[in-house]
Amino acid sequence: MAVTQTARLPLAPDEAHVWYLLTERLGDLRCLDGWHALMSAEERARHARFVFQKDRDLFLVSRALIRTLLSQYLGGDPAAWTFSRSRYGRPSLQNPPADAQLDFNLSHATGVVTCAVTLRREVGVDVEDTRRVPIEYGLFRHYFSASEVADLEALPLNQRSRRFFEYWTLKEAYLKATGLGLSLPLDAFSICLQPGRRARICFAPAIADDAASWQLEQFVVEGHVLIALAVRRRGPDVAVRVREFESLLV
Prior knowledge:
- This protein has helices at 33-38, 41-49, 53-74, 137-140, 146-154, 157-178; strands at 15-22, 83-85, 91-93, 102-109, 112-119, 123-129, 189-192, 200-203, 214-221, 225-232, 239-244.
- By secondary structure, it is an alpha+beta fold.
- The longest helix is centred in the first third of the chain and has 22 residues, at 53-74.
- The chain starts with 14 loop residues before the first strand and ends in a 6-residue tail after the last strand.
- The relative contact order is 0.18.
């Protein structure tokens, strides 16, 4: 199976594109030799080290997705991209083209891979299958902020799981957008969720960041996939487009 090539995708500076791909629609990933050929030698070695097939599948799809997307935005051969990682593990293009000003971020959960793409602005994305059982309730008391824990404790038991995922994905999206990952304590910033209003972020005094510069969004696709986005804004909100990535569904 070959990876479809298309003309360059347009992306405006005031836009954020979010793509998702469900592995259940891809057939038998072990037969997709063309996707394996897109990976670098280092990526193929990492792919081979996964113990479980589902983890190998997710890794393969994530590499095929980002390589294909980069080529659809920037042109070029999907197999030619090389990547580096920051001190905290955030991937970026190594030796990008002179006109490449893309920022991108990947996330995956069981059965789904997502990628967010922007121009010249930090972006982070996180995804969860809300059918998954969340971590034991007592554990996130130690990681979430006091206001988030209070909100969860005020909810009926049958609503806590969904709210947990809403907090978790938004916090992860912000951490990934900053590139700091879990080096930034999860209880050092808070997500404010109110019915009918967009999620907001606020920081403890120890964090030197501007809450007003962050746009947070959440989307539910396929009924159970929750996608969270954190994007740095400079002035008005960016327009967010969420789409299923169909170029690999061939």
